[in-house]
Amino acid sequence: MKPKFLIITIALSITAFLFFNGIFFDFSEKLDEAKDVLDREIIQEIKKDILTPPPLRVDKEESVEDSFLTKTGVLNWTNVNRNENGLSSLKHNSALELAASLKINDMLQGQYFDHVSPSGVGPEFWVNEVGYAYIMTGENLALGNFEDDQDLVQAWMDSPGHRANILNERFTEIGVAVGQGLFEDRRTWLAVQVFGLPESACPEPVNTLKTQLEAYSDQAEILRERLNKLKFEIDNTEPKRGQEYNRLVKEYNDLVNQYNNIASEIERLADVYNGQVVEFNNCIKGN
Question: One Pfam family this chain carries (predicted)?
């Protein structure tokens, strides 16, 4: 009876070894595919769009004393026009307002009227300077003694490029600055609108998921190396029976179970992470 029992045990061990051996290599291929996620599914680098229509300069007969502009009024009339065109109001953002104010001061100090200063400083500089992380930004400029806030915004609305910024459905925030000063030896008003779509508008993939994926991949790689060594030992162990052989087979099968569980978890996390990556990339593209 003892020899018969031994033969059955060995047969079961060999069957189990072959069975798990097949599963191991099946999951090994799946793990390679899942690990490719970390290389293949990369978060698209944010392309920071900057919309800058030609500056609006209006020469009017009104003197600076006859003209009066306010940043609150400009914001209100901007949102009136958006609402009339079926768009939601832009939210005031203090950082963008500061960027607009810095822009006015720089134009007056440098005596230029353009999106880019003579030294090459563009609108993105001021937005970055105030710490506003954006996906998209835009800048409207105006110079002249406009009658009031409504008159100024209407002048922008009558200009296709400025109108496009005001009615851009992707912008969600705005900062406005107005000011008067000497420009080309004449006292006049300057106005700046800085529009923004913040990075926070697009939810980034959860970093902990990527960290988990990397940790599981490292664990699986260690297990795979151990499994390959064990397989080599088993293949070269003679005879294919006995306590030592059965111990190696059991250790191999136990490790295969661990490996397969990790590989399955990697696949699950990869699916979740990939979904978040796709959502983020579509968001920054405006899809």
Answer: CAP
